[in-house]
Amino acid sequence: KSANPQWREQFDFHYFSDRKDMLDIEVWRKDNKKHEELLGTCHVDITALPMKQTNRLELPLEKRPGSLLMLIAVAPCTGVSISDLCVCPLGDPSERQQISQRYCIKNSFRDIKDIGFLQVKVLKAVDLLAADFSGKSDPFCVLELGNDMLQTHTVYKNLNPEWNKVFTFPIKDIHDVLEVTVFDEDGDKPPDFLGKVAIPLLSV
């Protein structure tokens, strides 16, 4: 019930190659659980923003009254990675030793915000639900930790997909929960939900 809402949320989007991308933003109004209305959209050309600084943008909504105030920073991607299982980070013993030294007790207060990182190996899924008329699915896997999100590629027409990917996340809050969700890719339509697991970091 506000015409001037403040969200104060931070989201991290990761780019692993030189791409010309637009950030598309939609503002929605929700009356109740069933009724939603689009209040407006706006777009930001990421490639036009200066690097390594916080850009304060006031973006008018297209064809609708109102505007969005945002802070957008474009910076080199650190602490997050996607790799194949065969070139897994931390596979090198000397690298593991450096990591152990970095996070040893005597270095705990060197960088308070550097809590650590989480490495997840997504190997495969077994006996997934068939979401297509052909009796198969086109599954992909999405990993979410806080407001960070990474995903695997899609394995088409398979109920027992093998992804064999390694994901590395920086940890910002030790109380976060890793959510791993499997979806069925459905062309231009929203993906179908195939299953989900949630793993609290404190249980690892």
Automatic annotation (TrEMBL):
- Keywords tagged on the record: Calcium, Membrane, Metal-binding, Repeat, Transmembrane, Transmembrane helix
Query: How would you describe this protein's topology in the membrane?
Result: Multi-pass membrane protein
- State if DNA repair is listed as a keyword: no
> What region holds the C2 domain?
1-59, 93-204
**One record GO biological process:** regulation of neurotransmitter secretion
Any idea which GO molecular function terms this record carries? calcium ion binding
Cross-referenced InterPro entries, in alphabetical order? C2_dom (IPR000008), C2_domain_sf (IPR035892)
Predominant localisation class:
membrane
Protein localization: Membrane
For this record, the Gene Ontology CC terms, alphabetical, are: synaptic vesicle membrane
In the record, the note on similarity to other proteins reads: Belongs to the MCTP family.
Name of the protein in question: Multiple C2 and transmembrane domain-containing protein 2
The record lists the lineage as: Eukaryota, Metazoa, Chordata, Craniata, Vertebrata
